[in-house]
Amino acid sequence: MKSLKMMFGIGVLALGVASAASAYKVTLYQPLMIGTTELKAGEYKVEMQGDKAMFTMGKSTVEVPATMGTNEKKFSSNAVTTDGKQIVEIDFGGTTAKMIFGSPVQAAK
Fold first, then answer.
1. Alpha-carbon distance 29 to 21, whole Å?
2. What are the extents of the domains in the chain?
3. Cα–Cα–Cα angle for 19, 39, 34, nearest 5°?
4. Which distant-in-sequence residues (6+ apart) come within 8 Å of 38 by Cβ?
5. For the chain, which terminal residue's Cβ has fewer other Cβ atoms within 10 angstroms, N or C?
6. What is the pLDDT of residue 93?
7. What element of type H or E holds 65?
8. DSSP three-state, residue 36
């Protein structure tokens, strides 16, 4: 009985740690726009804090509005979807998680 309780406790702890791990690594191979800010090429830590995505590289952090979504199947690798140079979605490899950003404002015709 004691070992069953211990296994349950370890399982709950593991699930808590896994669900708290909402930071991802994303590499940009060229400068891209996120909102009105240009992100330089490089590796970023990306995480959600409330309704904002935080992009951190070194001591520099960029904060932009975003929402989290899920896919039916796990993504095989990280993928950044753009509209021109504007980031509109990031899919996180090995998970079903994706981060969605507002579309760039379309110019009036």
1. 25
2. 23-100
3. 70
4. 31, 32
5. C
6. 95
7. strand 60-65
8. coil
Contact (Cβ atoms closer than 8 angstroms) between residue 73 and residue 87: no
Cα separation, 28 vs 41, whole angstroms: 5
pLDDT band for 108, please (50, 70, 90 cuts): very low
The CA-based angle 24-104-82, given to 5 degrees, is 45
DSSP H stretches of helix in the chain:
2-20
pLDDT-derived band at 102, boundaries 50, 70, 90: confident
CA–CA dist 36, 74 (Å, integer): 30
